[in-house]
Amino acid sequence: MLIVGAKGFAKEVLEVCNQQNELENLMFYDDVNDDIGNQLYGQFPILKSIEDAKEYFQNIDNRFTIGIGNPSLRKMMYEKFIAIGGVFTSLISTTAIIGHYNVEIMEGVNILDGVKVSNDVKIGLGTMIYYDSIITHDCFIGNFVEVSPNVKVLGRAIVQDFVHLGAGCIIFPDINIGKNAIIGAGAVVNKDIPDNCIAVGVPAKIIKNRND
């Protein structure tokens, strides 16, 4: 397995790999940061060029996941590593509770400890769900969504692609969160949020349109 990124969220993903006994031939990829050396924790090699990653896919293991939180960067890394033969792979913590009925989890999803996902839920490509978040029944979570710790998404809510849900926010039932929206930490969303908007507060109010 190759983890794209070698800081921050990549360290959280490493713990899930440890739970899943996926440490053999595990490597990281980081061609941006010069201060990380050649190994993480003195154990896991850090690849530094796309040519090295391509060789890894061809000769060792073609699976990769993304250890970067930002939704747009996750999409960029997905496209970059798929193009050289990588297979986008989900990692789900052994302590997460996933419903048994009509749950669809797409490729490249990262689900961390303590997450609960109910029945009739779809989670899109490359989405990340952080510690102790709850996705209740009949919810739809789009592609490359970032769900921060302790978020609650309640029945039939829709969270569109590239949304960032801040820590501890609550999305009420039947709410639609538009593409590229950002919901602030601790916000309580009881009305639909259009595309590209930033909303904060209790109840959540739109404070900015990202297009502006």
Mean pLDDT: 96
Radius of gyration: 17 Å
CATH class of the largest domain: Alpha Beta
In the CATH hierarchy, the architecture of the largest domain is 3-Layer(aba) Sandwich
Terminal Cα span: 40 Å
Observed structural traits:
2 domains; alpha/beta; globular
Task: Summarize the SSE layout with pairings.
Blueprint (H helix, E strand, L loop, with lengths): L1 E3 L4 H11 L7 E3 L9 E2 L3 E4 L2 H10 L3 E4 L4 H12 L4 E2 L2 E2 L4 E2 L4 E3 L4 E2 L4 E2 L3 E3 L4 E2 L4 E2 L4 E2 L4 E2 L4 E2 L4 E2 L4 E2 L4 E2 L4 E2 L4 E2 L4 E2 L7 E4 L4 E5 L3
Parallel strand pairs: 1-2, 1-5, 2-4, 5-6, 7-10, 8-11, 9-12, 10-13, 11-14, 12-15, 13-16, 14-17, 15-18, 16-19, 17-20, 18-21, 19-22, 20-23, 22-24
Antiparallel strand pairs: 3-4, 24-25
Compact overview of the structure:
The chain is α/β, with parallel strands linked by helices.
Please characterize this protein's 3D structure.
The protein folds into two domains: 2-89, Rossmann fold (3-Layer(aba) Sandwich), CATH 3.40.50; 122-209, 3 Solenoid (UDP N-Acetylglucosamine Acyltransferase, domain 1), CATH 2.160.10.10. The strands form four sheets. The protein has an eight-stranded mixed sheet with strand order 7-10-13-16-19-22-24-25, with helices on one face. A six-stranded mixed sheet has the order 3-4-2-1-5-6, with helices on both faces. Strands 8-11-14-17-20-23 form a six-stranded parallel sheet, with no helix packed on it. It contains three helices and 25 strands. The termini are far apart. It has helices spanning 9-19, 50-59, 71-82, and strands at 2-4, 27-29, 39-40, 44-47, 63-66, 87-88, 91-92, 97-98, 103-105, 110-111, 116-117, 121-123, 128-129, 134-135, 140-141, 146-147, 152-153, 158-159, 164-165, 170-171, 176-177, 182-183, 188-189, 197-200, 205-209. The chain is globular. It is 16% helix and 30% strand. With 212 residues, it is α/β, with parallel strands linked by helices. The model has no long low-confidence stretch (mean pLDDT 96). A hairpin with a 4-residue loop joins strand 24 and strand 25 (205-209). Substrate binds at residue 69.
